[in-house]
Amino acid sequence: MSAFSDFLDKNNDLINKVNEAIMYGDFHAVKEVYIDLPLLKDTRLGLILATDKDALPYVVANLKSYLLRPNRSFTFAYPKLKFKEKEYQQMYRDPKYATDLFNRSPDTSLSGSLPTILRILRTNNDRVKYTGSLHVTVNTFPIKENELTDQYRKMLTKAADNLAIIDFVCIDPLVISSKQWQSTDIAFLDSISYELSAESTIYKPLFQDVSMGLTKIYAPYDCDDSILQQWKRYNVDFTDKETVKTVFAPTEVALNAFCHFLFASFDVNSNNK
Into how many domains does the chain fold? Predict the structure, then answer.
């Protein structure tokens, strides 16, 4: 298989979903794209690998389960890790781990397919006669911007071949202004159970005002603990791709009443550590 064919095989889920959105009847010019950094670099895996030098074989052996997990936890697929979930959550927000965490974070399929996606968006913008800039905001939260994130921003900009203006910010998604959310055309959200909660600034424009009907939102599987406990009582097999897709289907349908929402895969290469 050629390198290009291999790339398409690994990244066609996201690319196809963006293509589907372009073919969607209400698609319009894209000016603003929002991306959470963990969907470009798996920073949770980065923390696991940075805090336990012996974890790599265990991580690789259970990577399929990790990528299908029904929430954004560290330990759901890795119950035998060195630390408990609460400890990982605390370390995740601790600046002293930021450098090692970032260095050990593998790139995701979105990172690899981003230049192709931006090219698709630019082509669409040309078709609808929008000649303005395409702006991408990458939110590094909870990792504060540093020399490494700046280097990564420059790398993404170069890979994108100047198709977009790429800026990095570090801000809790819960306090991003409602105005900014409303101006976002495409959003790649790391945790919908957190970012779409009633405490978030996106909640009112999305669910109450229903003013984000044209916004495209892509996200990995994520449910809150109460729903997860219900599924566990029914012995849902979270290692089976079709089963996980089925139990999350009602969530996808419900969110589509308020925006153009799709669950997507943000895979990592087991050799990319």
Answer: 2
What is the pTM for the complete model shown? 0.91
Same domain, residue pair 134 and 252: yes
**Which residue is it, tokens 């398409």?**
8
| Residue 270 lies inside a defined structural domain of this protein | no
253 and 201 in a common domain: yes
Q: Which two tokens mark 3?
A: 């390198």
- Angle at the Cα of 161 (from 157 to 164), degrees rounded to 5? 60
pLDDT(7) > 70: no
Q: What percent of the chain has pLDDT over 70?
A: 88
Same domain, 209 and 124: yes
Task: Flag whether 273 is in a domain.
Answer: no
Q: Indicate whether 160 and 209 sit together in one domain.
A: yes
Q: CB-based contacts of 176: which residues, under 8 Å, 6+ apart?
A: 139, 201, 202
Give the other-Cβ count within 10 Å of 153's Cβ: 17
| 8 A C-beta contact, residue 266 and residue 110 | yes
Q: What is the mean pLDDT of residues 204-212?
A: 95
Q: Any idea which residue has 């589509």 for tokens?
A: 256
Specify the pLDDT at position 5.
40
Whether 166 and 220 share a structural domain: yes
- Average pLDDT value for residue range 167-188: 96
